[in-house]
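Narrative of activities, Objective 1.

The group set out to show that a structural description can be obtained from nothing but a protein's sequence at a throughput compatible with the screening campaign. Below is one input-output pair from the validation batch, recorded exactly as produced.
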Amino acid sequence: MTSIQGKMRDISARWAADAAPRLRTLSDMLRACASRSSFDAPAVAAILRLTHALAGGGGTMGFSEISALLLPLEERLDRARAAGALADDDRRAIADALDRLPALIRDLETFRA
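Output recorded for this entry:
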């Protein structure tokens, strides 16, 4: 293994360790957003920022499963923000993400470069 490969593995491991708690935070934020009866624009904006950062980082660091889950969710939430409301499809997308996030978090927590 070259020194560059070793450094990339270290960076990936650090990213995974940082991303796991951030995905937990995202999960909590999504759960709160989906449970509200009224649209909370600041909450959706915060979710979008975190979703965008995690999706981009996941793609950059080789965690394509994270990007595959979060990019479509980001697009859906961006449309909801523009509309000023969460549609039923948006709530289903959030529920799907909430179902899939725990496995991704576990994978990150056990990731070893």
